[in-house]
Amino acid sequence: MDDLKVFKVLDLEEFQKTFSAYQKPQKDHEEDQSFVRKVKELSVIDGRRAQNCNILLLRLKLTNEEIRHAVLSMDEQEDLPKDMLEQVTHYHIF
């Protein structure tokens, strides 16, 4: 077989497209800069503690003001169960 005859008949672009390894398309420089500018979410407490606080607040079924009042008045009306009050003071939610 003559190589020159094969090269004339062969569509090299199609051959390369069919048998080449997949490569990610190159990103523009502007896209890279927008990725760098992306701001991460800032959290004061770790995720586990935040989740525990949210669970506690959902179980209390009181407004923030009612919880604050119960803690500051040392819960004279007993709005909060004792174990919940201990958890509220533990997490410093008020």
Largest sheet: none
Q: Output the helix-strand order.
A: HHHHHH
**Based on DSSP secondary structure assignment, what is the total number of beta strands?**
0
Strand content: under 5%
Organism: Dissostichus mawsoni
Domain FH2: 1-94
Protein name: FH2 domain-containing protein
Pfam family, one: FH2
Structure description:
The chain is an all-alpha fold. It has a domain at 63-94. 61% of the residues lie in helices and 0% in strands. The N and C termini lie far apart (86 Å). The model has no long low-confidence stretch (mean pLDDT 75). Helix 4 runs antiparallel to helix 6 (82-91). It comes from Dissostichus mawsoni (Antarctic cod). Residues 1-94 form the FH2 domain. One of its GO terms (cellular component) is stress fiber. This is FH2 domain-containing protein.
